[in-house]
Design a protein that fits this description.
It is built from 6 helices and 15 strands. By secondary structure, the chain is α+β, with helices and mostly antiparallel strands. The chain has one domain. Strands 1, 2, 3, 4, 7, 8, 9, 12, 13, 14 and 15 form an 11-stranded mixed β-sheet that branches. It has a two-stranded antiparallel ribbon with strand order 5-6. Helix 1 runs antiparallel to helix 6. The longest helix has 24 residues.
Length: about 250
Amino acid sequence: MTKSPKKLHLKAIPLYKLPNDEGVHFLKTDLKQMTFGEMSELAAAPFRDDNWVRLAYSVSSTVFRPYFDQGFAGIMKRKSTVSENGYSFSNVFNTVSAVNCLYFDTSYRSPGTCDWSREFKFFSGEQFLGGIGVYAISLTNNCAWLSKQVALTSIARYYIQSREVSNNQSDRKNGNIFDRQSGDPFNRMLIAVIKPDQWEIAFVQIRKMGPPVSKVRSCEVIATIFNPNDFIKVLQNGLESIAQEEHTTQFDY
């Protein structure tokens, strides 16, 4: 395992913004809890969005909790009247008991480091399911080790800002508040790190540092990166020394 010798301090991070309706897509795949054997098969396969969503769902479903997102609720309502290739999106929203997934490309990309980044959001009916952020980033050819740290830290910064935007839009519904924040000092992410010849899984923990009223706030990002097959072994057997990389970075916002 390799570890970074010091923290990175990043400030020039792109701001979070809600995607356009046309940029939001729905994955028409069956989401259910898979066995470790089934997860291992997906981990050994080349990266695909639908496989990553199925794997991330099986890993994360036990920590899901409902919240309301006003911005995406509006997008879903507008998309419910749209059809693509004969498929009506209204079917997705009307199946309350089923868990579905939407995805969109985020505003973060960096020439020479990250070609694109993508967020995946799980939902059931009108409620979104939070507890862990699910993303994918596509690294450019010959992306250096330090550049990968920058990319992971940048998407973590994007995730924190998206959570705060959602919290500011917390909705009261039947006397309940649907909110992303959990009171847990760590915010967690699963990130598929896609390279030209392989892909990896990064488990990321984000810890806010300093008082929340401070003018300049900081976050510490702890990223542990696994070969996908090794990641499933860790889940199954509780192994601790199988990670390929681990590094800690820091950003201000």
